[in-house]
Amino acid sequence: MIFHPTVMALFAGSILVSFMILYSASYAFLILRKWDLQSGSELQLNLERKTYLISTLIGYAFAFELLSFFLYVFTADQIHTFFVGAMCAAGSLYANDYGYPTLILKLVNFLLAGIWLVLNYVDNRGYDYPLVKTKCLFFLLLVPLILLETFLQGNYFLRLNPNIITSCCGTLFSTETFVLPSAIGFFPSIPAKAAFYVTLLLTVGSGSFYSLKGKGGYLFSAASALAFAVSVLAIFSFISPYIYELPTHHCPFCILQKEYGYIGYLIYVTLLGGAIAGLSVGVLMPFRKIKSLSEILPLFQRRLAMASSTLFLVFTAIVTVRILLSDLILEGY
Amino acid sequence: MIELRDIRKVFNSGKPNEFAAVQGISLSIEAGKATVLNGPSGSGKTTLLSLIGCMARPTAGRIRLFEREITSLPERFLTEIRRQTFGFIFQQFNLIKGITALENAMLPAYPLGEKFSSIKKRGLHLFELFNIASKAYSKAEWLSGGEAQRVTIVRALMNNPSVIIADEPTAHLDTKLSLEFMDILGKLKEDGKTLLLASHDPLVYESGVVDRVVNLRDGRIEGAEE
After folding, report:
1. DSSP class of A188
2. What is the rounded CA–CA span in Å between residue A138 and residue A115?
3. What are residue B37's DSSP bridge partners?
4. What is the pLDDT of residues A81-97, one digit of tens each?
5. Angle of helix B175-190 relative to helix B145-157, nearest 10 degrees?
6. Mutation for B interface: A35, A45, A124, A132, most B CBs within 10 A
7. Which residues of B touch A131 (CB under 8 A)?
8. What's the pTM value of the predicted model, to 2 decimals?
9. Cβ contacts of B76 on chain A, cutoff 8 Å
10. What would the pLDDT profile of A154-177 be if each residue is shown by its tens digit?
């Protein structure tokens, strides 16, 4: 294990979060089984009070989840100097078998935790705990994922060995190798760009339409999911090469470094934020007819759609400006 | 209409000093009437008032306020109800020293975000209504007992609540002031306010203003079936 401050913070933070969600899970389970708002029993009134405690606990735990995704990537980038062959986070994560699985799980948990926080926010706006069972069920489904993340991350940090020779991103994300991320880099640039801009146009367009007219929520949410997936592929395929001005370099991590003005953080924050807000619009659609939410939810969804569209637009603008300012000519590559 | 269904309130539950202040009270309180909760010290009057006034939550049971169930409400909704539905008159006057009587009376209106000038105008109007306009700019500590009590009534009325809750309101008043206070409550009742008082003062529960007396003992309604 490497005793780097951010490693220690992530290690300790994840263990703490695991305890917090395990404690909350016991009450979430009880709520799912025993919740009955019509009853005036001592148990029901006790559960009503406990919902504040566990919502707060889970809220903090999931806020840490959001932060920890970026802290994990930042940490991987910071510790690359300890490994022979590593040039950025890509090499650090490749130093043992747990680095990339942890990253992927953190990304999944980031999106799901973000959606849960939106659900919790909406539930707190209703006077009769309208989503309490939904958010408890959703939370209980998330518990094993968070625990698995703690396990994988713990193994990753505990098994880090500075003597190991790892691969650099030039090997992992070059067009000469055939691992999955590299295969994405083989996408021809023009069709990839067309798919990227058409998808984002569809997302921003449907998001603006929904925020103005309140129609097409599911369409917008699906478009957001598609835009997120296409954008991730686009980062591998052509956005990274434009930023590095190297047609063979597709690393999604080097853009997080100082040499590139830490632009990667801005790109990922706007992309992930847009995805969470967009997906949440769709997740909330079935609850619009609940009486205690019927007045506030449609307006909140419109605001979410507007926030999501704005974030996707900012993401597209950042990427487009970097492409236009780049000296690389990728067309036909 | 305020309806209480099988209300229990237990303090320090599960500990050696556990105390059941209210033990399974069911009660309907009519709107626009004056109801007095009567009983000796420790009978549960104040606890029951604080539960109805959304200042505490019951251990078990439900309370409906004008057809709305309030015991399950999240805290942020309870705050709104406390501010807009209830006006509180406490046993102690609870006036803040160092500021004027008018400023004291205006305090409950501040969180609602109303314009200061309109709050002040309403406050002065109420001071005139209760014949204490000349004391509006007097510091709280300069007021006599009767004046202080009137200021607390004005403070309770600042947000134009539909229910006035008063806990032992005459405990610190002499007979003359107590009778004056009951006259004021009579006028409020005529204006359509629902009055809910906790008192074991005969001047209160024997007053003509009062429509109903509910006798409590040991956290239960006397004469009610177990």
Report:
1. -
2. 10
3. B198, B214
4. 887 777 787 888 887 88
5. 20
6. A45
7. none
8. 0.85
9. 124
10. 999 998 887 777 777 666 666 555
